[in-house]
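Complex 179.
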Amino acid sequence: MPSVKRIDHVAVVVDDIESALEFWRDGLGLEVTHVEDVPDMQSIVAFLSTGDSELELVKPTDEDSGIARFLKERGTSMHHICLEVDNIEHFIQRMQTLGIRLINSEPVVGTGGKLIAFIHPESTQGVLVELYELTGQEPEIRLARARALADRAISGGKAVASAVLGFLRRLRRSGSDDD
Ligand code: CO
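Predicted structure with cobalt (II) ion bound:
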C-alpha cells in the first residue's frame, strides 16, 4: 500500500535569499545544499539541510508570479510543506476520487528533478501541500540546473554564486565516491 514516508521539506517565501541566510545558515548553522533557478515557478530556491529533511527558501524573480503575489499579501512567511510519498500517481488518483482539489492533476518535474504535485489549499485547511516522489534522474537534472544557475549567478549575488559553487563541488565529490 503506497504511503507517506516523511516531510521532505518546509518552504519559506523570502524577498532576499542572502538576508534570509543570515538566520538559517549563519544563525542556525544549516548548510546550503543546492540553489536553483526555477523558471516555471518564476523563482530562485535555496535548500538547506536539516538532517533527513530540508528547508527551502523561495524568492520570486517575477513581480507578476503567484509567489510574488503571496509575498506581497502575506509578507515573508511559510509557504508550503512537502511530503515524500512512494507513489505519487496513486495519491493523485486517490485524492481525485475523494474530490480533493489539486493544483497539479499530473505530476510535474520540480526543483532538483523531483516529481511533484501541489494540492490546492482549499482542500487542506489553507495549507499549501506538495507531494514528492524520488526519481532516478534527480542528480543529473540537479547538476544541469545548478550549472545553468552558476552561469547566471556570476552577475548576481555573491552568496548565491558561492552556494552554487559549493554545491557543484560537493556533487563532484559524491560522484567520485561512486567510481
Ligand atoms: Co517545495
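The CA atoms of residues 30 and 50 lie 7 Å apart.
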